[in-house]
Amino acid sequence: MSEFKDVTIVKKASVYFDGKVTSRTVIFADGSRKTLGIMLPGEYEFGTDTKEIMEIISGDLDVLISVSEGWKTIKSGETFEVPAKSKFSLKVKGLTDYCCSYIKVE
Hints:
The chain has one domain (7-103): Sandwich (Jelly Rolls), CATH 2.60.120. The model has no long low-confidence stretch (mean pLDDT 95). It is 0% helix and 61% strand. The protein is mostly beta strands.
């Protein structure tokens, strides 16, 4: 999906790691939400309460979701999932545009 229709955008940006990672929240009519953001090159660790699906629109990075599975390379057009109540690490290699979907687990 290249665009979203009939949504609410939160104007205030979420800014992390001294401005190296930023995002804006998109809220859909059903209450679900996504964030659209940019990551500059660097290494980052995030925690999440909900399951996330990260779509890499452009750029590439390495992701570590579990130590047992090791680092995986993710490129433009690919996605990866992060389980709820977990942490994940990123090594962002170049300017990366992303869309993160937050999945409610029942």
